[in-house]
Amino acid sequence: MKPRPLRATAAVSRVGRRPALPDNPTATAFPPARPPATMTDHADREWRLIREEARPGPLQMALDEVAAETAAAGGPRTVRVYRWAPSCLSMGYGQDPETVDWEHCEATGVDVTRRQTGGGGIYHDNEGDIAYSIAAPADELPGELIESYHELCPPILDAFARLGVDADFVDEERPSIYEPACYLRGLHPAHDVVSDGGAGRKLAGNAQYRRKDAVIQHGSVTYDARPEEHLAVFSDPEVTPEEFSERVAGITDIVDASRAEAVDAFETALQEWADAEEGSWTDEELERGREIAAEKYEHDAWIRERDAER
Hints:
By secondary structure, the chain is an alpha+beta fold. The chain contains nine helices and twelve strands.
């Protein structure tokens, strides 16, 4: 079975302001700041929380699609937190493969896959990155993109608040440092979450992609930035670790929280927002995920050539 085509979407701005979106229509993005997440209208539907699981990047991307298929078919909607094992470089949908240091990734055991969503590449360190996703039927969410982000992102901002991190959208545009790396692209108030209430360093980003019957939102949160490892996956970054650290921060740079505490904050915020029951993948879902991963996210036609069905 071939995976259904998916459509990536654009970024969203802060409440009360709608700055022009950047040229990249699939840029990673966070929604406007909103009050701490509480149970919403979504909580009267069937949701499951899948707590953090460590799996290879290609399978994690495939499982995002599986969660969407399950929700669209009348099964539970899914909120989950996940971990990349081993560490993985996820290329943006339109990223040039020549920007990747393939020899380094192979030598150090770093997986490489390509996301459905746009933007630059993200190095997801096994320890330093925390990922999440939300999947729900399309007809249960606003059709307008900004409103859809408003519906789905409050628990992510709530998780930062639970950790004591003063995160908000960047207060003004800043220039790009290095385009192939998502975290080093130009910062824009529409979609870049930074520390110090909007004046600090980039912490996280997320994106949505849509199919006719479901919406998938996923995001990357930097727990521990690890600039040397992040830059090493690119072929010619022309950026020093010091310059990287001036632009990017991790949770560990701001608060004294263990990784387990950070993961718990995101799991709890997501679970309370959806009033979700703890759940797990079925055997059929895992098999479907492995099928999609093999056909797409592990395949050179998708990763190196971007030639597989989207």
